[in-house]
Design a protein that fits this description.
Blueprint: E1 4-8, H1 12-22, E2 38-43, H2 46-57, E3 67-72, H3 75-81, E4 84-87, H4 91-99, E5 107-110, H5 117-120, E6 127-132, E7 141-147, H6 153-164, E8 167-171, H7 177-185, H8 187-204, H9 209-230, H10 234-241, H11 247-257, H12 260-279
Parallel strand pairs: 1-2, 1-4, 2-3, 4-5, 5-6, 7-8
Antiparallel strand pairs: 6-7
The protein binds 2-acetamido-2-deoxy-beta-D-glucopyranose (NAG) (3 copies).
Pathway: Amino-acid biosynthesis; L-proline biosynthesis; L-proline from L-glutamate 5-semialdehyde: step 1/1
Protein name: Pyrroline-5-carboxylate reductase
Keywords: Amino-acid biosynthesis, NADP, Oxidoreductase, Proline biosynthesis, Signal
Length: about 280
């Protein structure tokens, strides 16, 4: 039993998914069938395949008995052996790689930014686009999935189970993919800007760098956890922190005056606009 998953182009995100799937905790009897028995990673050069090999050496034994084979320059054989193919190449290499293999009857999972389901549909009818982000490397990633019409419910569950191991994952219609690229994909950079600003505020007022950083990290992490655990709208929680005539409301008013909110909203929107232009080549 079990199927083979081929990973074409095992770069940063391909490796994050490989780690997450391989190192997933033991599956329940219901989800066991969603895990591959074998993963074949494909890379174009021996050097890069070597990097993937190093990564795999750092793994323990897979709780789901997954076996990994690293290859280079062997895409055709890997795809022929696989039922599910994860495409993780750089966008400009995707066409060449897809033309070199036959994925027509495979479930094609694409990490390639800007490639639409329609474009991928020239190669396979069974397509899932995946937008994820770099915290996936540490198990705190977010992923947005968008399926082509032909992907069966069984295969949707399979993708959700596999990709969910990077952190969290949801399904959205493809028309939201550019927005997801900005919010999820670029999101960490936007949050890092906020973290850096908080740190600098501490430094400016005399708190040393190390301590400023520690405070900023925990404030962002703790606030996210608080929103998640209470299920409250952020504005409700924000107002709970605002004592009348107090410090917090004073700080918030200055930030609003400086346009922090609209700066963030318009910045994310601009990133989405650039993402949509990437798709129209
Ligand atoms: C690709 O594979 C499918 C079935 O696996 C086959 O029907 C089709 O002819 C193949 N296409 C090419 C171009 O070889
Ligand atoms: C999707 O899942 C079904 C099982 O429900 C499987 O038989 C089929 O091969 C899968 N489709 C693709 C394209 O991988
Ligand atoms: C063409 C290709 O996919 N190359 C990748 C091979 O693996 C390394 C990591 O080991 C990636 O950085 C390359 O992008």
């Amino acid at each position: 039993m079990g199927y083979t998953l081929a990973i074409l182009g095992c770069g940063v995100m391909g490796q994050a998914l490989l780690s997450a799937i391989y190192n997933a905790p033991a599956a329940s009897p219901e989800t066991k069938e969603f895990y591959p028995s074998k993963i074949i990673t494909c890379n174009s050069s021996k050097g890069s395949a070597g990097n993937v090999e190093e990564l795999i050496k750092s793994f323990g034994k897979s709780a789901n008995d997954i076996e990994v084979e690293t290859t280079f320059d062997d895409n055709k054989r890997a795809v022929n052996e696989a039922q599910v193919v994860l495409l993780g190449t750089k966008p400009y290499l995707a066409q060449e790689v897809l033309n070199s293999v036959n994925v027509s009857e495979k479930l094609l999972l694409s990490l390639v930014a800007g490639w639409t389901i329609e474009q991928l549909g020239e190669y396979s009818q069974y397509v899932t686009r995946i937008m994820t982000n770099t915290p996936a490397k540490f198990g705190y990633g977010m992923a947005v999935l968008s399926h082509s019409a032909r992907v069966s419910n069984h295969n949707k569950s399979l993708v959700k189970e596999l990709v969910g191991n990077i952190g969290d994952c949801i399904e959205l219609p493809e028309k939201n993919m550019d927005a997801a690229t900005a919010l999820v994909g670029s999101g960490p950079a936007f949050v890092l800007l906020m973290m850096e600003s908080l740190m600098e505020s501490g430094i400016k007022m005399g708190i040393p760098l190390k301590e400023s950083k520690q405070c900023a990290i925990k404030v962002l992490e703790g606030t996210a956890k608080m929103v998640e655990k209470t299920g409250e709208h952020p504005s409700v929680l924000k107002h709970q922190v605002c004592t009348p005539g107090g410090t917090t409301i004073a700080g918030l008013c200055v930030m609003e005056e400086k346009g922090v909110r609209s700066g963030i909203v318009k910045g994310v929107e601009e990133a989405a606009a650039v993402a949509s232009r990437l798709g129209k080549k």
